[in-house]
Amino acid sequence: MLEINSQPFFLSILKAMWPLWVLILVRIIFYIFDIEIKDLFNRRKFQKGAHWRSDRDIIHWLRNMSPKDFEHYIADLFSRLDYKAYVVGGPNDGGIDVIAEKDGIKHYIQCKKYFKRHEVGVSEIRDFYGAITDKLTSGKAYFITTNKFTLPAEKFVEDKPIELVDSYRLVKYIHLAEKKKEELKEPVNKEICPECGGQLIERESKHGRFYGCSNYPKCRYIKNL
């Protein structure tokens, strides 16, 4: 019986269709790249106005992050709070996602991002404590989540150097970082507030940028840009 070798025929088909495969690959790459760019743009746009958004909006935004993005956001947040922070998370991170260093002392952070409502239980806190207990000399540990903790978890850390940061406490940290950012801004042209003698500082609101008095909220003088 005559046998027909189909392999050369199949290869010829593939060679004839290579422009189509290249086009499909290029479209996939552009699609992924476009999503990444849009996500980055939206994250920066949201962060830029975090100080005037509602706490509920911020929590919703945090819960929609990917776990990796959440780790990087926490590292950036601690950097804005005067720590030297960097992400170390990975398959063998030992429960440590971020290390934040200040005044030569290292603090260890675990990040748990959950999309839906979830209470972090005592077993997760116990595992984290077991992973970092030999590292805690003078520093402390932070367990940060986008949700909340169970009562047994809160009881477990009462006598331990671990701070539990739930979604609402995390929002307070975010507002604190925004406040520090505003305080660090230099006065514009050394202008003086005509109402109280304070210094005019460039600020930002959802309506745009403006010059506000450094003595806010006691003085509410505003000068439009």
Which helices and strands occur, and which strands form pairs?
Blueprint: H1 6-16, H2 18-48, H3 55-63, H4 67-80, E1 84-87, E2 98-102, E3 105-112, E4 119-120, H5 122-132, E5 141-145, E6 148-149, H6 151-156, E7 162-165, H7 167-184, E8 187-192, E9 199-205, E10 208-213, E11 222-224
Parallel strand pairs: 3-5, 4-6, 5-7
Antiparallel strand pairs: 1-2, 2-3, 8-9, 9-10, 10-11
Short description:
With 225 residues, this protein is of the alpha/beta class.
CATH class of the largest domain: Alpha Beta
Query: What is the number of beta strands?
Result: 11
% residues in beta strands: 15-25%
Largest sheet report: 5 strands, mixed
Q: Helical amount among residues, as a percent range?
A: 40-55%
Radius of gyration equals: 26 Å
Average pLDDT score: 79
Overall CATH architecture of the largest domain: 3-Layer(aba) Sandwich
Describe the structure.
By secondary structure, the protein is an alpha/beta fold. It contains seven helices and eleven strands. It has a five-stranded mixed β-sheet with strand order 1-2-3-5-7, with helices on both faces. A four-stranded antiparallel β-sheet has the order 8-9-10-11, with no helix packed on it. A two-stranded parallel ribbon has the order 4-6. The protein is flat. The mean pLDDT is 79.
Give descriptors for this structure.
single chain; 225 residues; alpha/beta; Trna Endonuclease, Chain: A, domain 1; Ubiquitin Ligase Nedd4, Chain: W; 2 domains; 5-stranded mixed sheet; 7 helices; 44% helix
